[in-house]
Design goal:
This protein is globular. It starts with a helix and ends in a 10-residue tail after the last strand. With 546 residues, it is α/β, with parallel strands linked by helices. It has a 7-stranded mixed sheet with strand order 8-7-6-9-12-14-13, sandwiched between helices. The chain has a 3-stranded antiparallel sheet with strand order 1-3-2. It has a two-stranded antiparallel ribbon with strand order 4-5. It is 49% helix and 12% strand. Strand 6, helix 15 and strand 7 form a beta-alpha-beta unit.
Length: 546
């Protein structure tokens, strides 16, 4: 091949790579706004219907969030959360915290105001999306979405990097997510032909084309299908998002309501644990194994953990992958007959317990799955003792479970008051009240301290999810879906904290991190997941130095 031909080939490949990268950025932006909309739409609808958006539009002066809660009969904590969500999108400016928090529309928010009507009826659209996700050919659900899509087409013509297009992506987000889930679903019920509105939603954002024989995915749509898993965790929280107006202003159902079988009503737990397991495999497994496997590669096999206890084990993915890695890659793996290893899963959710138990049993992994609560390590220890297991002889592991503990008022109220203003964030209790940041900080310290006696032998290896300040998120709107992360956790009374304060409080409680790793730092320039191998400092005589 001539040098000129080689040069042309390389230049052509570089151009193709640049074009693909540019398309990938456009695609990711659409994904992010779709997911933002799934989380935000019902909140926006509720605020607009109550008149709060109109009051913000009528003044340039910052308004007291507590004052708005009083005037409009809002639950204080959930209204503070709603303001935080809009601030993370750059639609409002927020200052102060707690009783001093104030809010005003940003310049971008004023450009967004003319499109508020697009969110009308959004809670009903979420309910319809839940029906379509279940595979129901629900005529009423289809008609509701067809009407909404027609209204959007009439009121938001054209496309491009405009506020109108952003709103279109917000509103169609739930239906796009349902379409992608059904196109990639594992169950036969969801593999049937997509309802017409699903194809229309995909077409509206350039991911489907209508031909002589019906709809097919476009080239960009095929790329979107490869990213479908991004939508699955947000989809699992559609039940929570659909009842946000009642949580803000109405007759609120219990946040963590359960059905007769003990399963939660606020989310699709089966989908949640499936998607969470996939996140571990795709994002966390490599670094996690790098930290965990050396503990099972030490020469003194008798000194290694006899058990691995995963509190909040989900579908058992972490336990499965860790066991197989130990068996195939460590000294312990070659001596399991002499030094057996039992993988213990604990769960408070019956769906997760059954799924984990079946998965571990199917692969012949020595295991036990019991009911357990991350907020009650002493109770867990007693439960396991009844099965002949000493939880103090275990390596404790967990993924994104610490923030999902049930909140309890701090035992040391004096210490909590001394922490004010406390770590940044909006923390809401199960009645919709606002938890003071100092109380939340003290609660986390007391949580970690409760685990100290159980981790002195082998420590705990913990993956935890984090939030970021709304101002940080607002600078990169379209590059992340922090609105989903904060809304799903906040409206279900889970307690995300920024990575820095979280680690500081673990250290204050008496732990040191022997190894650490941060994940997903590129979206907002801060870690959204962390991994720490925590050991009690007093094991090393370091407790006085923390």
């Amino acid at each position: 091949m001539h040098a000129e031909s080689v040069s042309e080939t390389k230049e052509g490949q570089m151009t193709a790579d640049r074009d693909k990268a540019a398309l990938g950025r456009v695609l990711w932006r659409k994904v992010c706004f779709n997911i933002d909309g799934m989380a935000l739409g019902a909140t926006i609808c509720a605020l607009a219907e109550k008149g709060i958006m109109a009051e913000l539009a009528g003044t340039a002066e910052p308004l007291s969030v507590d004052g708005l809660a009083t005037r409009y009969g809002a639950r204080r904590g959930f209204l503070h959360l709603a303001v935080r969500l809009l601030a993370s999108q750059g639609l409002v400016k927020r200052s102060g915290g707690g009783e001093t928090a104030r809010v005003s529309l940003s310049e971008e928010g004023r450009a967004w105001l003319p499109f508020l009507a697009a969110y009308d009826g959004f809670p009903g659209l979420l309910t319809a999306a839940i029906a379509l996700l279940a595979g129901n050919a629900d005529e009423d659900a289809c008609e509701l979405w067809e009407t909404a899509l027609h209204r959007l087409s009439a009121s938001l013509p054209g496309a491009g990097e405009t506020m109108g297009e952003r709103v279109r992506l917000h509103v169609t987000g739930p239906l796009v997510a349902v379409a992608l889930r059904r196109l990639t679903g594992n169950d036969t019920q969801n593999k049937g032909a997509l309802p017409q509105p699903c194809w229309q939603a995909l077409e509206a954002q350039g991911w489907a084309e209508e031909g002589a024989e019906g709809f097919i995915l476009s080239g960009e749509g095929e790329m979107a299908l490869d990213m479908a898993a991004q939508y699955f965790l947000p989809l699992s929280y559609l039940p929570t998002f659909s009842r946000v107006p009642k949580m803000l202003f109405g007759d609120m159902p219990p946040v963590l309501e359960r059905d007769a079988s003990g399963s939660e009503r606020h989310l699709d737990r089966a989908l949640d644990i499936e998607a969470s397991g996939a996140v571990f495999t795709r994002v966390c497994a490599g670094p996690f194994l790098e930290l965990a496997l050396p503990l099972f590669d030490r020469e003194e096999l008798a000194a290694q953990p006899g058990y691995v206890i995963d509190t909040g084990c989900g579908n058992g993915t972490l336990l499965k992958e860790l066991f197989h890695a130990i068996a195939s890659r460590t000294r312990r793996g070659k001596a399991l007959s002499e030094f057996p290893l039992v993988m213990v899963g604990t769960e408070y959710n019956p769906v997760a317990s059954q799924t984990a138990r079946a998965a571990l049993e199917a692969e012949g992994i020595p295991h036990l799955v019991v009911a357990g609560d991350v907020g009650d390590p002493d109770g867990l220890g007693k439960t396991l003792a009844g099965h002949g297991i000493d939880a103090r002889q275990a390596l404790h592991v967990g993924k994104s479970v610490i923030h999902n503990r049930r909140y309890q008022a701090p035992r040391d109220a004096t210490a909590a008051r001394q922490r004010e203003p406390g770590p940044p964030g909006v923390f809401v209790d199960e009645e919709g009240g606002l938890i003071e940041p100092g109380d939340m900080a003290q609660n986390l310290v007391e949580h970690f301290r409760a685990w100290l006696p159980w981790t002195r032998r082998h420590g705990m290896l913990v993956i935890e999810a984090h939030t970021v300040a709304p101002e940080v998120a607002a600078d990169r709107v379209g590059n992340h879906h922090m609105a989903y992360l904060d809304a799903s956790h906040g409206f279900s009374c889970q307690y995300l904290m920024e990575a820095g304060p979280y680690r500081d409080l673990a250290r204050e409680a008496g732990f040191i991190a022997l190894s650490s790793h941060d994940f997903i730092t590129g979206l907002v320039g801060r870690p959204l997941l962390s991994l720490d191998y925590f050991m009690p400092a007093d094991v090393f005589g370091l407790e006085g130095l923390l």
